[in-house]
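Morning run. Coffee first, then this:
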Amino acid sequence: MVTDAQKSEGLFTASQIARFCQVDLKTIHNWADRGQISHFRTPGRHLRFRRPHVLDFLRKYGYPIPEELEAERPRVALFVDGMRGKDRVLSTLRTAFEVVDYPDPLTGLLQIGEQPPDAVVLGARVGHLCGAEIIEALKRGNNTQHVRAVLFAGAEADKQAALEAGASAHVSPSDLTGLRDTLEALMGIRH
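And here it is:
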């Protein structure tokens, strides 16, 4: 059973993963040791798995997606300050995701460092910061390196810089359906 604390953090234990895959607990430890499933260890050396990585693993190896993973709405942090049509972006994404809008980029970045979302959507510029620099910082952080980053901007140079920094995807600002579809695919909502 998933505890409330784990659900809010999107974390799963080795026992839960073993139950999802219908395998022995030792098998999960072997998979983790071989790097087949992304994980981290608690200070007490217990394995923990983040929701997006569990979904990636289950889909990659053809396991069915458990109802408890499908039922949880992935959390997306939105950093698109000053964008025209932002209300449309919010309403499009809220059909499938829990969306947190951060109009102040510095406050938002501090908050996602404490409670990382499943994905971030950001523009090429976020306040005084460059989107690619934010992505690089997310990928360097132990607590945020798993976060999927989607650049929501049109310029080719911005796209290239974001992908080199570790962005999972790039979507043109005129393609709201593409943004939702991209996030759904990255979060394992569509199989």
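Residues 1-8 have pLDDT under 50 and may be disordered. Good start to the day.
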